[in-house]
Design a protein that fits this description.
- The protein has 217 residues and is of the alpha/beta class.
- It has a single domain, classed as Vaccinia Virus protein VP39 (Rossmann fold), CATH 3.40.50.150.
- The chain is built from eight helices and seven strands.
- It has a seven-stranded mixed sheet with strand order 3-2-1-4-5-7-6, with helices on both faces.
- Helix 1 packs parallel to helix 5.
Length: 217
């Protein structure tokens, strides 16, 4: 087990509770996402956490493959699916770079609260582009930690930055802006079709982007 897996395993127990204060952002993001989902879609939920979004979207799509590097997160997600009698979501501990995922396999790929924490976002975007079907959709929600946030949230972010520098949080936490997300998407071969900056104590950026036929350099 690497340090990132260990960290997210440790965070899994209280993950849902710690996310409650951002429920408005999560609810608004899911509302925006639902407009783009079809009953024929095969969806990949990248970094699914405890599976809340995947379970909520399950009734709108054909099937969802939901992955996370944390086995403990996946255990909680599977419990939610069992309780909710959700049958078309497959939860699995895995990484998006696993070779078992074939190119052009998915109609939609979701990445909620992911892009500011991955080691190499450009590589992630390239991989997402590869896995999407032609003109498939990438839908992301990204905390923009260099934009507007409440005093309390700002204090928390400053503490997290200190813990990252000390190595106590073994994942990168980037302070990015919505325009930087746009640049990342464009460089990865995507064109935004809808975006919204959502604020409730912190700024979070929702964007739905379509895969272009060829990657622009």
């Amino acid at each position: 087990m690497n340090k990132s897996e260990e960290f997210w395993d440790g965070a899994s127990k209280n993950y849902d509770k710690t996310e409650e204060r951002f429920e408005y952002i999560h609810s608004k993001s899911r509302e925006n996402t639902r407009k783009f989902l079809k009953d024929s879609d095969i969806v990949l939920d990248y970094g699914c956490g405890t599976g809340t979004a995947a379970c909520q979207f399950s009734s709108q799509v054909k099937e969802i493959h939901a992955i996370d590097i944390s086995s403990k997160m996946i255990e909680i997600a599977k419990e939610k699916a069992t309780v909710g009698k959700t049958e078309n979501v497959n939860f699995e501990q895995s990484d998006i770079f696993d070779n078992k995922y074939s190119n052009e396999s998915y109609d939609v790929i979701l990445a909620f609260n992911m892009l500011h924490t991955v080691p190499n976002p450009q590589d992630v975007m390239q991989r997402i582009n590869e896995l999407l079907k032609p003109e498939g959709l990438f839908i992301s929600v990204t905390p923009c930690l260099r934009q507007k946030m409440s005093f309390f949230v700002n204090l928390q972010i400053q503490l997290v930055r200190v813990l990252c520098k000390l190595g106590l949080i073994p994942i990168p936490i980037r302070r990015i802006t919505s325009s930087e997300v746009d640049n990342l998407l464009e460089a990865g071969g995507f064109q935004a079709v809808e975006s919204e900056e959502i604020y409730k104590g912190a700024s979070s950026y929702f964007v739905a982007a379509r895969k272009l036929k060829t990657i622009t350099k």
